[in-house]
Amino acid sequence: CILAGKPLVDFFGVSQLQFQGITGYSAGGRKATPDGMPRLVQFGKPHRHLPEIARYTGAVPVLTTTVGPWRQGMMVQTFVPRSEDEVIRVYLDAYAGRQGVRIVSASELNHRVDPQRCNGTNDVLICVAGQPAGGSSIAVVLDNLGKGSAGAAAANVQLMLCGSR
Q1: Which of 16, 75, 105, 132 has its CA 20 to 30 A from that of 112?
Q2: Are 141 and 70 in contact (CB under 8 A)?
Q3: Is 139 within 8 Å of 87 (Cβ atoms)?
Q4: 59 neighbors 14 (Cβ within 8 angstroms)
């Protein structure tokens, strides 16, 4: 949510962000299984990540989450009333030189975004799709298990030792 939202706030002045997240069933813990999937979870309840999303984006977030029938991999989607070209430019500027962050147009993926696409990596895919009625949808894909606390700690050490780029 932060990867998608922060540039939208910084460049477009967005004050509220609405996210739809879908993740593999491993997000439910060790005993989670794919039975009965997909389903909305915590629907209408405050999500534990809302405070950090608000803090690091500077906007008021809304988050609806769904658990899917695959084990790992996640995708967060949002929308902004700006053209695809504008949104892609913003993300390219925001993440220029950032290793492991790929920004693409939905047309490059044949308009199909797989939430498991980044599994087994620390990479992040940001896909932008212009909408026929105007504006753009954004999908951010990452491996929700591969970038757990150990992966995040390693990435933070790398940033401290090698700089932010």
Answers
A1: 16
A2: no
A3: no
A4: yes
Burial (Cβ within 10 Å: 0-12, 13-18, ≥19) of residue 165: exposed
The token duo for 150 is 């150990």
pTM: 0.85
The candidate with the shortest Cα–Cα distance to 125, out of 106, 108, 142, 146, is 142
Write the pLDDT tens digit of every residue in 87-126.
999 999 999 988 889 999 999 999 999 999 999 888 999 9
Residue matched to tokens 């895919």: 125
d(CA 35, CA 16): 34
User: Are the C-beta atoms of 14 and 8 separated by less than 8 Å?
Assistant: yes
Q: What is the mean pLDDT of residues 4-30?
A: 90
Report the amino acid identity of residue 31: K
Tokens 């053209």 belong to residue:
83
CB 159 within 8 A of CB 97: no
Residue 160 CB-half CA count within 13 A: 6
> 21-67: per-residue pLDDT in tens?
998 888 766 777 777 677 777 778 788 889 999 999 999 999 998 88
CA dist 121 and 123 (Å) reads: 5
Which of 118, 112, 84, 87 lies closest to 100, judged by CA? 118
